[in-house]
Design a protein that fits this description.
Layout (H helix, E strand, L loop, with lengths): L5 E3 L4 E3 L6 E4 L8 E7 L9 E7 L16 E5 L3 E4 L2 E4 L10 E7 L4 E6 L2 E2 L12 E2 L9 E7 L5 E5 L31
Antiparallel strand pairs: 1-2, 2-14, 3-13, 4-9, 4-14, 5-6, 5-13, 6-7, 7-8, 9-10, 10-11, 10-12
């Protein structure tokens, strides 16, 4: 839910219609299993005006909030750091810009999340083996979680790929282990 933004292109493109922060999350929250999604960064990405991440289905509104701003979400910002409760921790080791594809791997079985830039997982992480993931906040780890993106700039859009219809140009056509989806980068083993 986002009060100022709008979803277009089959709910795969999020446009922030205000000058403040707003977040768009997946329409389905997950409580178990391992899940993968990709995001094409906005054309106007700069500073800290865009982030991808996850949010707990805690009843708190994402309207006017960005992922990582609160204790119930984890967000990867353009500076390459992830945030929980607006506290930054180094993760990617480099910034990301408008030419990148960001991946989110959400492991609900082990209560971890991973982020990748152009197919390279941050912090030497490996979602398939459970290595170097970011622990979901313990107070919310048993909630259902959403995958999404946030914007803090009036003119920005974020494009999402959850494996079905997407407007992101895919050049490689990777699928999950069951042959589902079309992704730029191969989902980690065991992720759907």
């Amino acid at each position: 839910y986002n009060s100022n933004g709008k979803l277009i292109e089959g709910a795969t493109r999020f446009y922030n219609g205000s000058g403040g922060a707003d977040t768009s999350i997946s329409t389905i929250a997950v409580a178990n299993g391992k899940w993968y999604a990709e995001f094409k960064t906005p054309s106007n990405v700069a500073g800290g005006n865009a982030m991808v991440g996850v949010a707990a289905n805690s009843g708190d509104s994402v309207s006017g909030r960005f992922l990582g701003q609160d204790a119930w979400s984890v967000g990867l910002l353009t500076d390459g750091n992830y945030r929980i409760n607006n506290s930054a921790t180094s993760y990617l080791g480099s910034t990301w810009n408008n030419t990148e594809i960001l991946s989110v791997a959400l492991d609900m079985d082990n209560k971890k999340v991973y982020f990748a830039k152009n197919g390279t997982w941050g912090n030497s992480g490996n979602p398939a083996t459970g290595t170097n993931g970011i622990a979901l906040p313990s107070a919310y780890e048993d909630y259902e979680w959403f995958i999404g993106a946030s914007l803090v700039n009036y003119t920005d859009t974020f494009n999402a790929n959850f494996g079905g219809f997407t407007i992101i140009s895919i050049s490689s056509g990777n699928t999950d282990e069951n042959g589902y989806g079309t992704f730029e980068y191969a989902p980690p083993s065991g992720y759907y």
